[in-house]
Specification:
The chain has one domain. It contains three helices and six strands. The longest helix is centred in the C-terminal third of the chain and has 16 residues. The N and C termini lie far apart (35 Å).
Length: 105
């Protein structure tokens, strides 16, 4: 996985390229599904099939707040399916699970 500076994060997110930085990583976890971590905390899931961004808006630290801004900068225009916010990793995984279940019906 490629290590990148923060200024490149929005570009890599926008293009669906996995990366890591000092405190952030973007990994592909399934077909068209990517997760973004700040340190070891899940702060976003982006589903390219529905173009929906699930964002953990809980404020953990100044660094994580910066990561959340970088995610929005990179994916806000791509999220034509909407942006779903929740507070905490469990909230966004539950939201994503409910969204995926609704699509499967």
């Amino acid at each position: 996985m490629r290590s990148i500076p923060y200024r490149m994060v929005p570009l890599f997110l926008r293009n669906g390229v996995t990366f890591r930085s000092n405190t952030m990583k973007h990994i592909k976890t399934g077909y068209n599904l990517y997760e973004v971590y700040s340190y070891s905390t899940l702060i976003a899931i982006f589903d390219w099939s529905t173009r929906t961004l699930f964002l953990n808006e809980h404020r953990y630290s100044v660094t994580t707040a910066r990561h959340q801004r970088l995610i929005l900068e990179g994916l806000e225009e791509e999220a034509t399916g909407g942006i779903v916010v929740g507070s905490g990793p469990g909230a966004i995984t539950r939201s994503w699970g409910a969204d995926a279940a609704a699509l499967a019906v």
